[in-house]
Amino acid sequence: MQKIVVEGGQPLNGEVQISGAKNAVLPILCATLLADAPVEISNVPHLHDVVTTAKLLGELGAGISIDERYGMTVDPTTVHSQVASYELVKTMRASVLVLGPLLAKYGTAEVSLPGGCAIGSRPVDLHIKGMQSLGAEVTVEHGFIKARASRLRGARHVFDMVSVGATENVLMAATMAEGTTVLENAAMEPEIVDLAECLKAMGAQIEGAGTGRITVHGVERLHGGSHAVVADRIEAGTFLVAAAMTGGRVTLRRTRPDTMDAVLDKLTEAGATITVDGDRITLDMQGRRPKAVNLTTAPHPAFPTDMQAQFMAMNCIADGVGVINETIFENRFMHVNELLRLGADIRVDGHTAVVRGVAGLSGAPVMATDLRASASLILAGLVAEGETIIDRIYHLDRGYENIEEKLSGLGARIRRVG
Ligand SMILES: CC(=O)N[C@H]1[C@@H](OP(=O)(O)OP(=O)(O)OC[C@H]2O[C@@H](n3ccc(=O)[nH]c3=O)[C@H](O)[C@@H]2O)O[C@H](CO)[C@@H](O)[C@@H]1O
Ligand SMILES: C=C(OP(=O)(O)O)C(=O)O
After folding, report:
1. Active-site annotation holds for 316
2. What gap in Å lies between CA 35 and CA 74, rounded to an integer?
3. How far, in Å, from the CA of 221 to the mean position of ligand 2?
4. What is the dihedral sign for C-alpha 191, 193, 198, 199?
5. 2-(S-cysteinyl)pyruvic acid O-phosphothioketal-modified residues are where (predicted)?
């Protein structure tokens, strides 16, 4: 099995280009199922999850073509199946996002229940309730969500809690429903705005994406179109934390700074000088040690749960004590025990982790448990003395494009072995 080996001690310096967002491209690829002609998606990141989604769309019958310039064209006109198998859904829970498009377009969908994952139980009840509000008959049988509706009907739907995936699924379904849908307590993440932009390019009528109330006027059909995926704010944040932890100076190209307020504020609080120039973000730490920061994860625009593990790694070597509250997922502290193996001082009590900064970490073999946990271990490895060997990096390949090449380009000593 492949591993990543990091030798700590190099401050990062230089420029790096940020890829398209994993959490935007996955729903967008599912949304292409709604169209009645090919849809071209550009700025597609090379990620394992994108390959899995392409396989899923292919299984449904869609034609997929890929060009070298990070472009992907999905031709949904050949779709002949409305069944998403357990084999694919279990490896990537975002597969559940084909439910809304298939149901809206074909009046039927059978999608395997995704099950939980390392970070929490992750139910899909809110997705199901949303489809029921639009008039679908939904049952759960033999591990599958089975949904039917001759045509979905627009409705007012209030989400019980803020969910990115449920908002996306119901938004996609509503685009082809009869009449108007109003989604209240909708998630406001930038990836939802990007999905709505893509749907609009396909002819959907959507207002209010990026706010808590999204209004959708259903249309009879969606046509082909083209869309460029928004920059990955989590990848960008991960590189900024890497620069801050190593006392370096790094410029990110092709970012969307307006989607990153909470993360940029926390990095400034940690002592970094941040400069934004159009789509470029420069972080300069001038060799200083970061100051510990307190943070609480919450839905956008508050601090993202997908950056919690990386900031925990930074607090491990920061000056002072940082208190981290995780409010989104019930089990998203799996990286703690691995960071402890590197010499960190962290105490967990329920949803709170108290991190006391230590003068230095020491490299050791560690195991990645989930995507962002893997990133936090690389970050810790960049400052640890000696070698940190990270196992189970398949998690990392789900969501980071060429991370070791990008970090090497900034001067890190990192390599993939095995
Ligand atoms: C592919 C993708 O975009 N993944 C992101 C998406 O995941 P995902 O869309 O799965 O996350 P949600 O926003 O739905 O989850 C938020 C919370 O709602 C709960 N919940 C969700 C749905 C539901 O039907 N019932 C329910 O109880 C979840 O268990 C969790 O506690 O948003 C998360 C929160 O920003 C991010 O960490 C993930 O990276
Ligand atoms: C938790 C994440 O992804 P997913 O929802 O695909 O598991 C993530 O991107 O950090």
Report:
1. no
2. 9
3. 31
4. positive
5. 117
- What is the sign of the dihedral through the CA atoms of 284, 286, 289 and 293? negative
Of 328, 329, 372, the one to substitute when testing ligand 1's pocket (max ligand atoms within 8 A of C-beta) is 328
Give the three-class secondary structure for 242.
helix
111 DSSP β-pair partners: 84, 145
**What DSSP element (H or E) covers 257?**
none
List pLDDT tens digits, range 161-184.
Answer: 999 999 999 999 999 999 999 999
ipTM exceeds 0.95, yes or no: yes
The 3-state DSSP composition of the chain as helix, strand, coil percent (nearest 5) reads 35, 30, 35
Q: Where residue 115 falls among pLDDT bands split at 50, 70, 90?
A: confident
Asked if 44 and 230 touch (Cβ cutoff 8 Å), the reply is no
What does the block give as tokens for 162? 């803020």
Annotation-wise, does 93 bind a ligand?
yes
Binned at pLDDT 50, 70 and 90, residue 241 comes out as very high
What was the pLDDT predicted at 28?
A: 98
**Angle at the Cα of 12 (from 9 to 13), degrees rounded to 5?**
140
Task: Confirm whether residue 254 is marked as ligand binding.
Answer: no
- Helix (H) / strand (E) containing 357: none
Q: Beta strands 108-112 and 83-84: pairing type? A: parallel
Length of the chain: 418
pLDDT band at 67; cut points 50, 70, 90 = confident
pTM over 0.95: yes
What the chain holds in terms of domains, given with CATH numbers, is 3-19+231-417 (3.65.10.10), 22-228 (3.65.10.10)
Quote the tokens at residue 321: 């004590």
Q: Give the pocket of ligand 2 (CB within 6 Å).
A: 22-23, 93-94, 306, 371-372, 399
Amino acid identity, residue 166?
Answer: A
**Model pLDDT for residues 313-359, shown as the tens digit of each residue:** 999 999 999 999 999 999 999 999 999 999 999 999 999 999 999 99
**Residue recorded with tokens 């690389």:** 378
Concatenating the DSSP letter of every residue in 310-346 gives HHHHHHHTSBSEEEEE--S-TT--THHHHHHHTT-EE
Task: State the Cα–Cα distance between residues 235 and 399, nearest whole angstrom.
Answer: 8
pLDDT level of residue 304 (50, 70, 90 thresholds): very high
